Amino acid sequence: MAELCNACGACCRVIYVDQSPEEIRAIAQLTRVLGIPSDMQFAAEHWRPLTREEAMVRNPFYTLQLPADAHLYTCDQLGEDGRCQAYEIRPLVCRGYPWYGAKPEAIPLADPECGYKAELPAAPSDNAGRKAKRRHAPDA
User: Fold this and answer.
1) Is residue 99 part of a domain?
2) Per the domain annotation, does 87 fall within a domain?
3) pLDDT value of position 85
4) What are phi and psi of 31, to 5 degrees?
5) Could you tell me which of 70, 80, 65, 82 has the C-alpha nearest to residue 10?
6) How many structural domains is the chain composed of?
């Protein structure tokens, strides 16, 4: 799968996770003490909480899609050039933007300013799948 990022920085300007700043710090501390790698260690070090108003200025399209009580953050690893300065070690939530595991064509929340594109292989047609199932069906 080929990937293309236009370095718009949308994934770093507003970050949404379920954890509050206090929860992020607690999880980071616990996983550090236990010697367990955790995205929360990165978050505790590099993310700063945002108010909803700040998030609206940074990325209104994305912010409007989020719950009113969402915990919102921004990351200090966004470089002047719009690229992540910690790209190789960025957290999973950053890696998933804007698709978060869903098929790109099925995501209405995808930021129209985000230049990320994924060239996905063509899905097999339903007809091809039915033929394959018939070929491998056990004889009765």
Assistant:
1) yes
2) yes
3) 93
4) -70, -30
5) 82
6) 1
Sign of the four-CA dihedral 47, 51, 52, 56: negative
Q: Is residue 129 a part of any domain in this protein?
A: no
Q: What is the 3-state secondary structure (H, E, C) of 72-95?
A: EEEECCECCCCCECCHHHCCHHHH
pTM, whole model, 2 decimals?
A: 0.71
Q: Name, in order, each residue with C-beta under 8 angstroms of 36's C-beta and a sequence gap of 6 or more.
A: none
Record the tokens describing residue 28, joined without a space.
């980071």
Q: Which residues, 6 or more positions from 41, have their beta carbon under 8 angstroms from its beta carbon?
A: 28, 31, 32
37 assigned to some structural domain? yes
* Joined tokens for residue 23: 């929860």
Per-residue pLDDT tens over the stretch 99-120 = 665 555 555 555 666 766 555 4
Q: Which domain holds residue 13?
A: 7-114
Chain-centre distance for alpha carbon 133: 35
Q: Which token pair is 53?
A: 């108003």
What are the beta bridge partners of residue 48?
A: 74
